[in-house]
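subagent[fold] <- orchestrator: predict structure for attached chain, return tokens only, no commentary.
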Amino acid sequence: MNIMLRVGINGYGTIGRRVAYAVSLQDDMKVSGIIKTKPDYISKAASKEFNIYVPDKASEKKFDEAGIKIKGDLGKLIEDSEVIVDCTPEGRGKENIRIYQDRKIKAVFQGGEDADIAESSFNAYSNFNESVGKSYVRVVSCNTTGLARTISPINDLLGVRRVNATLIRRATDQNDSTKGPINSVEPSLKFPSHHSPDLKTVLHVPEVETVAIKVPTTLMHVHVVELTLGRQGKAEDAVSAWMQRKRVFVLSGKDGRSSTAQIMDMAREIGRNRSDLYEIAVWKESVNASGDKLRYVQAVHQESDVVPENVDAIRAMFQLLPQADSVEKTDRSMKISGSVI
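subagent[fold] -> orchestrator:
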């Protein structure tokens, strides 16, 4: 008899709606409900698939007037769930964790929260076992997830002594019309950027230096990565290591996928839900090994790369499956195939 873990989603924005979809694909968990704050077009669409809850009873009237049936408030969602995936806006988790602790329910937080909100930070490849049996786990940010995904296999194969990465960041998500920059490039003015300590929470390498630059695009982040290796290796070694991890695409720019726009178009062409690319895309031509250095360029779809991590984090917390089995199960259900395409 399969366990069907009841998962509540607090917040149904960019990440929340994708986590809800991913959970709905699993045969060992189900979505007990989602929290929405406004009776907008997203709420109306979601109500056809999921039970809708609101943050508090004061919000119920707005949904009633919009003709959207409400099952209850956050307290009721907690009663109806065994774990909450908190996908509320950055910083809100500090308030919400008090509620979860009072109600004695486990919770998964996102990378916008500070690391100390949880008992552990999580990446499925690099430190799955550190979250086994924990009650409060934080899935690291999209950028940190992207770095951990591709560095972890190299660390396992050759060892990594130092990470240097330049993160060229998208300005905002595609459905956000309020943020920028619109016509400028904004460098971070602090070395390292906050991604450096964040990466160290999930990937145990001696030195990490990062810098971030925000540019006016909404499609993807691009990372330029240089690793100082524990022992020398070849570019082919790195590509082979990535090909064994399905959450990494190794692709070629020679066949028309030399930009983030073309990569996202590829996601549409292969029929991905919401045109998402869960995998980290590494350009094969960019991979260069020289002495103890390995360099490469990768693209990160900020709206979706953390989604499979949320599913695996839940399994780790409830000890449903060991690392390899959980990752394989999540990949299979979400049709994450990896390899060279």
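orchestrator: received. Logging for downstream: The chain has a mean pLDDT of 95. The chain has eleven helices and 17 strands.
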